[in-house]
Amino acid sequence: MSRITSHVLDTALGRPASKLRVRLDVQDDDGSFRTISERFTNDDGKVTDLLAGSSLEARTYRLTFDTGEYFAAAARPAFYPTVDVVFAVKAPGEHHHVPLLLSPFGYSTYRGS
Which residues of the chain register pLDDT less than 70? Predict the structure, then answer.
């Protein structure tokens, strides 16, 4: 399992958000972001292979959740077309789980376990 994972729950439906595109980027020294991988959540709303074979370093990362595409596929409205979560990895040896609680008009995130 990757040291960066995510789990997306669609709180409006009360179930996992499957087939939601998630992109992982790392911030380079010049401040720009470079894509490491792009994956889709599975039937349980999880994505576990975000590092795609890359090693985890003490850097700043960004997860971009394509919420607009997810809601459009179900003909549901979406106020936020994407959700960007930027976080700093200070301890590369630890697991970094970033859950997203999602509804068409709001979201919440936190560092999970």
Answer: 1
Q: How far apart are CA 45 and CA 85, in angstroms?
A: 17
Q: What is the pLDDT of residue 83?
A: 98
* 20-43 pLDDT, tens digit each: 999 999 999 999 999 999 999 999
Query: What is the b/e burial string over 49-65, where b = at least 16 CB atoms within 10 angstroms of the residue's CB?
Result: ebbeeeebeeeebbbbb
Is-contact 63 107, C-beta < 8 A? no
Two structure tokens written together for 53 = 């074979």
CATH numbers and ranges of domains, the chain = 4-109 (2.60.40.180)
Q: How far apart are CA 90 and CA 94, in angstroms?
A: 9
- Whole-model pTM: value is 0.95
The Cα–Cα gap between 22 and 40 comes to: 6
Residue 74 · residue 88 · CB < 8 Å: no
Count of Cβ atoms closer than 10 Å to residue 46 Cβ: 19
